[in-house]
């Protein structure tokens, strides 16, 4: 007797069935998300009475450089080989070939152009970045991720009316005090540290002369606190905000970047450790740069609704990170309407997009307008020519 033949389902039919099942599953998932959104939609973190109507100063803006055109900048080979390097260049709308051919000043020009095209942001403080200093007091290129010299940033920002100089000096340099004086003489508005990659311990008593000079020059210290994941390695314990008690006690005005969002020390969130210091130090401030990144969800809410932070928060962008996939309005479906998320992400200018997102979430006018007043930089009205 002839063996009974098995029915064979054509491959195309199997794929069609899987496609139907997947579509149904996705449909159910979307409906579930919409239901959850209806149930838990809470709107902005704070109701925004009125957006800030003046031009905004971005007090936390980075530039980059590969050493082209005699800038003196460099990026470690480790970072150049990392996926982040290409993302950062793309955020500046510059290719590696263009930078090599036209020089690092091209990135500064693109920066000035982008701010010049912004309706909301009128100027930015562009940050230099010192490196790791070795036991002989010299720049340790092997352990430095990236280096942006003060001289380069001072010279290039002087060419653009909407850019201001933010210095960076590692206190381990033997001539650190002289460099501080030079920075002040060349119109630096602040000093920038990233302790976890510069290997600076803010609590080291050896830095007392440096802090006294900072206080004398009235140069605010803008320093990262909290976890650092923008580079290939970091010593996060150096970015504990509690380590900033020494400069604060010596009269230095300290601005903690990102309100110390992300990261823990001694079992406590770094942002909570920062908030716990506010009552003791009236010279302690924080900026809201990068606080809409997908890895920092919830921290902006905590910052702008914390009563102890009222009058202590300043707007910053942390460009170029705001111009990457790490920041999107679609990450806030419980706080923004679909129309808001769509319209914000459609804004072409990265600074305008950043301002719109933070305002939609409830960042008060006092925070957005704070830096221009804090640093004494007069700017015009938003949207003015």
Commentary on this structure:
This protein has helices at residues 11-40, 77-80, 83-91, 96-102, 105-116, 150-157, 176-185, 195-198, 208-217, 245-249, 270-275, 299-305, 338-345, 350-360, 365-375; strands at 56-62, 74-75, 121-127, 146-147, 163-167, 190-193, 221-224, 254-257, 264-265, 268-269, 284-287, 313-314. Helix 13 (338-345) runs antiparallel to helix 14 (350-360). The strands form three sheets. The protein has an eight-stranded parallel β-sheet with strand order 1-3-5-6-7-8-11-12. A two-stranded antiparallel sheet has the order 2-4. It is built from 15 helices and twelve strands. With 385 residues, the protein is of the alpha/beta class. Helix 10 links the parallel strand 7 (221-224) and strand 8. It is globular and about 75 Å long. The protein starts with 10 loop residues before the first helix and ends in a 10-residue tail after the last helix. The protein has a single domain, classed as TIM Barrel, CATH 3.20.20.140.
């Amino acid at each position: 007797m002839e063996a009974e033949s098995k029915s064979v389902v054509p491959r195309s039919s199997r794929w069609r069935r899987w496609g139907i099942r997947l579509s149904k599953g996705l449909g159910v998932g979307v409906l579930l998300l919409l239901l959850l959104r209806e149930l838990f939609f809470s709107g902005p973190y704070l109701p925004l009475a009125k957006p800030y109507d003046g031009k905004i100063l971005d007090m936390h803006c980075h530039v980059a450089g590969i050493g082209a055109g005699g800038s003196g900048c460099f990026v470690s080979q480790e970072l150049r080989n990392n996926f982040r390097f290409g993302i950062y260049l793309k955020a500046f709308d510059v290719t590696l070939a263009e930078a090599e051919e036209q020089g690092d000043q091209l990135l500064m020009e693109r920066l000035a152009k982008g701010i010049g095209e912004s309706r909301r942001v009128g100027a930015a403080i562009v940050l230099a970045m010192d490196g790791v200093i070795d036991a002989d007091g010299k720049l340790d290129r092997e352990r430095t991720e990236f280096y942006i010299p003060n001289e380069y940033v001072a010279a290039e920002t002087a060419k653009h009316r909407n850019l201001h100089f933010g210095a960076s000096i590692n206190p381990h340099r033997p001539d650190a005090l002289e460099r501080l004086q030079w920075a002040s003489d060349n119109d630096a508005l602040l000093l920038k540290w990233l302790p976890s990659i510069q290997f600076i311990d803010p609590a080291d008593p050896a830095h007392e002369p440096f802090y006294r000079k900072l206080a004398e020059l009235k140069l605010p210290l803008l320093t990262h606190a909290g976890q650092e994941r923008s580079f290939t390695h970091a010593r996060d314990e150096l970015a504990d905000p509690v380590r900033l008690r020494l400069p604060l006690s010596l009269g230095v005005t300290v601005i903690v970047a990102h309100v110390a969002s992300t990261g823990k020390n001694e079992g406590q969130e770094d942002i909570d450790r920062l908030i716990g210091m506010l009552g003791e130090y009236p010279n302690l401030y924080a900026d809201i740069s990068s606080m809409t990144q997908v890895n920092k969800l919830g921290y902006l809410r905590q910052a702008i609704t914390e009563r102890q932070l009222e009058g202590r928060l300043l707007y910053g962008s942390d460009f170029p990170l705001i111009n990457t996939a790490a920041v999107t309005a679609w990450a806030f479906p419980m706080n923004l309407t679909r129309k808001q998320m769509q319209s914000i992400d459609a804004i072409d200018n990265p600074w305008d997009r950043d301002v719109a997102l933070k305002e939609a979430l409830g960042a008060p006018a006092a925070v957005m307008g704070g830096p221009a007043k804090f640093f004494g930089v007069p700017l015009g009205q938003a949207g003015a020519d």
